[in-house]
Amino acid sequence: MILRIFVAGGTGVIGRRVVPALVSAGHRVSVASRSVEGDARLVLQGASPVAVDLYNLEDVRRAVGQQDVVINLATHIPSSVTKMMLPWAWHENDRVRREAAANLAGAAQSGGADCFIQESFAPIYEDGGDQWIDESCALRPARYNRSVIDAERSANKFTKHGGRGVVLRFAYFYGPDSHATREMIGMVKKGFSPLPGAPNAYVSSVSHDDAAAAVIAAIHVPAGTYNVSDDEPLTRREWLDSLATTLGVKSPSVLPGWLVKVGGSMTELLARSQRISSRKLRGTSDWQPATRCIRDAWPSLIEAMRAQEA
Length: 310
What we know:
Elements: E1 4-8, H1 15-24, E2 28-33, H2 36-45, E3 48-51, H3 57-64, E4 69-72, H4 81-84, H5 91-110, E5 115-121, E6 132-133, H6 147-160, E7 164-170, E8 172-174, H7 179-189, E9 202-203, E10 205-207, H8 208-218, E11 224-228, E12 234-235, H9 236-247, H10 257-262, H11 264-270, E13 275-276, H12 279-284, H13 294-309
Parallel strand pairs: 1-2, 1-4, 2-3, 4-5, 5-7, 6-13, 7-11, 8-10
Antiparallel strand pairs: 9-12
């Protein structure tokens, strides 16, 4: 079945994987675009670029029009790990999650869309220790990312009005085109750990490719919230050791506990043990991660980064 699909955030790290996949499947894909360069890439992919101000509801309604599916992957993530530690660097991302998400969900509803898909962030769950975390577990976002709840609320509101609102709570992304991944690998090369938290605390990850595949799968799932993570989250110690072994360097020490307290609410969130389960998504779709654990991804990931640098 050919669907009319509008994508916001279609030129980001997940979107630029999602859009070609949708086009290849035969769907009619329109994508919000903000630049001439972005327009050109989208046209080459077979999508239709649409200029739109995501903060203007009427403009969003015009741009979206009548669609079967509206996908919101729009974010404004700080451009480096260092900037991510600055609370004010997230203000624009807050606005995207609060205003743009609400406008897109509203436009999807008024345009008669059946499905609205909203990206979200899985590590806002409470610390789970060594227990598996599913979608029913308690949430406790930090000060810098409380707007995640606002974005999810827009999708839930779409469902209440008769549509099929789908929230995808992604684990920590990684990929060869991720500046955060590059910076973390660089830190381990220099003997420093990029991960706050206890050695036995879990960190859950998902590759860009697997995250994009989850977005495609979400077009056909029932309304609700779904975690998107790989099958085998690692402890901090396992994560550091596996990367260091691949790099051929000594594994760095885990960051001391006092650093978590000094770093404030953001560092506290990053230090939580998050053993996130994607069982619900796997049970309601044909999605499963192609890479079951980030440990398996390190060799090809580092090789791809070296190729890009050559």
